[in-house]
Amino acid sequence: MWTKLVPVTALIAAASLTSGTAYAAPTTPVGGEALGSRGLVAPAGVKKPPKSKATSYVIADAETGQVLAAKDAHGRYLPASTLKALTALTLIPKLDKERKIRPSRNACNQEGSAVGLSVKATYKVDDLFKGLLMSSGNDAAMALAETNGGLDKTMSDMNAEAKRLQAFDTVAKTPSGLDKPGQSSSAYDLALIARAGLANPDFKRYISTKTTKFPAPKGHYEISNHNKLLWRYNGMVGVKNGWTSKARASFVGAATRGGHTIVVSIMRHEGFFWDEVASLLDWGFSVRGKAAPVGQLVNPLPVAAQQPAASAAPSPGTSVTPAAQPPLLDSAADRQTDSTRTVGSLVIGGGLLFGLIWLGYGIYRRRARSRL
User: Fold this and answer.
1) Of 33, 48, 65, 328, which has the maximum CB count within 10 A?
2) Cα 199 from Cα 193, distance rounded (Å)
3) Are strands 260-269 and 248-257 parallel, antiparallel or unpaired?
4) DSSP assignment of 185-209, as one string?
């Protein structure tokens, strides 16, 4: 039976800090009180959602943000590769998609699923996002993190983006979604991330591409999207699926029919979930606009003001990051650019010249006094 909701307004307070923006954690379930239930929450007056073996799920209208049904919406579980949706949403605005990079050996040797990066090949950032979202490449995830300035910076950026989306159940520890202690997300948060991603044209292009050519050291090869529903479900847009032995199966996806888009997210499914997701999508389309929502996908908070870049961005297609280049340099000397070294030389040269002039002036004064 449908539970009466409380308003979602004024759940979050934002406070500006010198290092960025901090978002206070909510005191009630984000999206409405009913979404705090661990059991099924569904509207009255319509047929119940089809059964699912998923421990947690959310069905929502992407346009209005209305949550149509949910089960343990805010339960925190390991996200597996569905976390790559947050990686992409965070980094797409930060990285020039035409920039060329050569991945490090560390990136190429990531465990788990891979798109097949090689230290001998050069890739556009655009290629890496395809490898990330289509082939679920853990190697592509690390290469993108390194291109963004390193793993620590990327994880900080991803967690800041999660807080901006009000995805407070999400804690990112890896860019790939590989299991790590403390990492978590929820079906509600995955729906928030997917909804935000659908508003980004590049994100939407990557997730909906079925097959594409991918660079190799010599030539190219073809990669295909891991989302089976792109071939099976009418109107499927895509997003991301994931699996690890600890997380079990997870999925977040969206489909559009008749000009309306439904989002479904599931977490911790023990078996084959594709048919169940299709049934949940069908149910969402059948009840949208006909039943009272059980909650709301909240809107993102305003983007924090960006700090000006320390140096100009590389020209598109001209910057290649060599494989031997570490993502972060350790020594202060290595961090110096040619311009800082030149400035240092000018300072030393100017000081030496001033000292010689002062010494000459002192000698002149002593000689002058001796003549008096």
Assistant:
1) 65
2) 10
3) antiparallel
4) B-HHHHHHHHHHHHTSHHHHHHHH-
Tell me the CA distances in angstroms from 123 to 87, 106, 210, 227, 324, one per residue in order. 18, 16, 20, 23, 15
How many other CB atoms are there within 10 angstroms of residue 275's CB atom? 13
Task: Write out the two tokens for 104.
Answer: 């490090």
Angle (CA) 92-138-195 rounded to 5° is 40
8 Å CB contact between 28 and 7 = no
Torsion, CA 154, CA 160, CA 165, CA 169, rounded to 10:
90
CB atoms within 10 A of CB 240: 33
- Partnered with residue 67 across adjacent β-strands are 60, 295
* pLDDT score at 254: 98
Residues annotated as part of the active site: 81, 84, 136
Nearest C-alpha neighbor of 94 from the set 177, 15, 151, 158: 158
CA dihedral (70, 71, 74, 80) positive or negative? negative
Ranges of residues in the chain whose predicted pLDDT is under 50:
1-21, 305-372
Q: Where are the domains of the chain?
A: 14-296, 333-371
CA atoms within 13 Å, Cβ hemisphere of 180: 13
Residues with Cβ within 8 Å of 255's Cβ and at least 6 positions away in sequence, in order, are 229, 233, 234, 235, 236, 237, 261, 262, 281, 285
User: How many CB atoms are located within 10 Å of the residue 181 CB?
Assistant: 5
Binding site residue list for substrate:
240
| Residues whose CB is less than 8 angstroms from the CB of residue 16 and which lie 6 or more positions away in sequence, other chains included | 22, 304
Spatial distance between the Cα atoms of 292 and 278, rounded to a whole number of angstroms: 22
| Residue of 193, 241, 205 lying closest to 87 (CA atoms) | 193
The matching CATH number, chosen from 3.40.50.300, 3.40.710.10, 3.40.640.10, 3.30.70.20, for 14-296 is 3.40.710.10
Identity of the amino acid at 121: A
